[in-house]
């Protein structure tokens, strides 16, 4: 066991306290597949000397103070307890592909494998038979942006081993925050209106307002159900082709257009009766609130004097609705509708409001009340989604070329949880599904892939 040498105790942040509550406990799982066989000893040595084990939270136990407050307590890290080699296949079926075996392994981790609390809350699983490294990080350690930025700082560019991967938008230097814009009276009026509307809806979602039940709906207790995991693969160039077909669109607009179209296709296949046109299906998304979008410079994350950028869980929540529509002759309409919705969300203060009010509720009413409130919001929506733009260039980890990077997280009451990460021109969307509700998530993944294909074909022929 790790030595109990205490340096000092640091209280958890409000978001960190939320993620250690039983209803909302979250572990982020990152699978990195490599091209060459894994060298277990080399990986263990790399972890031992990496920046990861030097970060305070990665060498701290989660404990409770005498007053019952959750705290980080510094200890010596025994890396051998954190790096866990699996020398044999994680599947009992020799006909299962490496991709399916790893997805099944991660699906099991998401529902039934909490991290031990007698050591710092992270692990590295080396799946030697599948040439894959699975990193497990408790969400209390930090958000996806913090953790992915830290993880990539341990990697090197494939074309130049002396350089770390580029942080930020696909392969380019990260853009500085946009200059302050001058607001017109009309823009300010819309900001106030949209904020009031979305804040009211957020409040109602925490009380009783919920989506109508469909073939993809979850609910209270579904987080305990067994899971299956499937991957939808998108070429970023195809997404950019669609993006160019809609004025001022972004990759996120295209992603939500794909989700809306793909879910509509899936519901057409699986629904026992016809659904009303325009049926709302609400997603829940975590939004980075740092001034710079995308992955961050690790040195800025660790700069405690910079409260806007520093390490931790710096995100707000957004309710992001998509709508069921019969797939018509113009699939680009799904992207246009998604863009219209997202543009209104961007103009509101919904995300900062959820962050500030969440912290206030945690401080005034305690973590159990805050966790119950968040749990109700999740139960009253249909899916979770996130998107992180990863490095645009090929990278290596411990000298081993990386094939892909995929992310998923612990189960929630949603029947569908989706996380997308782009890497070297390809975006992988991991679809974690409750298998009693969505028996084969590969069908849903194919619906998403077909949606992008049809959008690209239509955009190319316009």
Commentary on this structure:
The structure is a single chain. α3 (98-112) links the parallel β5 (83-86) and β6. The chain is built from twelve helices and 16 strands. With 462 residues, the chain is α+β, with helices and mostly antiparallel strands. The strands form three sheets. Strands 5-6-7-2-14-13-8 form a seven-stranded mixed beta sheet, with helices on both faces. It has a six-stranded mixed beta sheet with strand order 9-16-15-12-10-11. It has helices at residues 14-18, 40-49, 98-112, 144-153, 185-207, 236-244, 251-270, 298-301, 332-347, 350-365, 367-379, 441-461; strands spanning 9-11, 27-34, 60-64, 70-74, 83-86, 122-127, 132-138, 156-157, 227-235, 280-288, 315-323, 383-389, 395-397, 400-409, 416-423, 426-434. The longest helix is centred in the middle third of the chain and has 23 residues, at 185-207.
Overview in brief:
With 462 residues, the protein is of the alpha+beta class.
Low-confidence stretches: 1-6, 168-174
Classify the secondary structure makeup into a structural class: alpha+beta
What's the total number of strands? Answer: 16
Strand content: 15-25%
| Number of helical regions | 12
Provide mean pLDDT, rounded.
90
Shape: globular
User: What percent of the residues sit in helical stretches (DSSP H or I)?
Assistant: 25-40%
Distance between the termini: 64 Å
Largest sheet report: 7 strands, mixed
Order of helices and strands: EHEHEEEHEEHEHEHHEHEHHHEEEEEH
| Largest sheet, spatial ordering of strands | 5-6-7-2-14-13-8
Cα Rg: 22 Å
């Amino acid at each position: 066991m790790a030595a109990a040498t205490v340096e000092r105790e640091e209280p958890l942040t409000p978001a960190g306290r939320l993620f250690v509550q039983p209803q909302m406990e979250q572990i982020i799982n990152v699978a990195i597949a490599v091209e060459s066989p894994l060298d277990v000893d080399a990986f263990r040595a790399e972890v031992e000397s990496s920046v990861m084990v030097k970060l305070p939270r990665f060498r701290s136990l989660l404990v409770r103070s005498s007053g019952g407050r959750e705290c980080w307590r510094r200890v010596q890290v025994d890396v051998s307890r954190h790096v866990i080699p699996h020398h044999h296949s994680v599947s009992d079926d020799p006909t299962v592909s490496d991709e399916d075996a790893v997805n099944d392994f991660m699906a099991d981790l998401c529902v039934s494998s909490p991290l031990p609390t007698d050591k710092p809350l992270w692990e590295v699983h080396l799946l030697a038979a599948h040439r894959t490294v699975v990193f497990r990080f408790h969400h209390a350690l930090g958000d996806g942006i913090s953790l992915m930025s830290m993880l990539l700082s341990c990697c090197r560019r494939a074309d130049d081993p002396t350089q770390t991967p580029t942080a930020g938008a696909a392969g380019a230097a990260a853009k500085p925050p946009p200059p302050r814009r001058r607001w017109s009276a009309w823009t300010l009026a819309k900001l106030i209106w949209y904020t009031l509307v979305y804040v009211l809806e957020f409040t109602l979602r925490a009380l009783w307002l919920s989506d109508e039940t469909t073939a993809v709906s979850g609910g209270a207790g579904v987080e305990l159900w067994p899971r299956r995991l499937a991957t939808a693969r998108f070429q970023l160039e195809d997404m950019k082709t669609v993006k160019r077909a809609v004025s001022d669109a972004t990759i996120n607009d295209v992603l939500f257009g794909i989700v809306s179209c793909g879910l509509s296709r899936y519901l057409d296949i699986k629904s026992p009766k016809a659904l009303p046109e325009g049926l709302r299906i609400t997603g829940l998304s975590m939004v980075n609130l740092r001034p710079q979008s995308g992955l961050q410079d690790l040195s800025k994350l660790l700069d405690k004097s910079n409260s806007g950028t520093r390490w931790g869980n710096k995100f707000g929540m957004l309710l992001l609705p998509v709508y069921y529509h019969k797939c018509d002759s113009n699939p680009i309409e799904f992207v246009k509708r998604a863009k219209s919705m997202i543009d209104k969300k961007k103009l509101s203060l919904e995300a900062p409001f959820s962050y500030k009010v969440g912290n206030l509720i945690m401080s005034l009413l305690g973590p159990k009340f805050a966790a119950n409130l968040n749990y109700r919001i999740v139960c009253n929506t249909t899916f979770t989604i996130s998107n992180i733009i990863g490095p645009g260039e090929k990278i290596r980890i411990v000298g081993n070329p990386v094939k892909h990077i995929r992310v998923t997280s612990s189960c929630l009451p949603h029947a569908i949880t989706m996380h997308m990460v782009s890497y070297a021109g390809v975006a992988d969307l991991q679809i974690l599904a409750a298998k009693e509700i969505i028996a084969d998530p590969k069908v849903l993944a194919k619906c998403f892939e077909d949606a992008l294909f049809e959008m690209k074909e239509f955009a190319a022929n316009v």
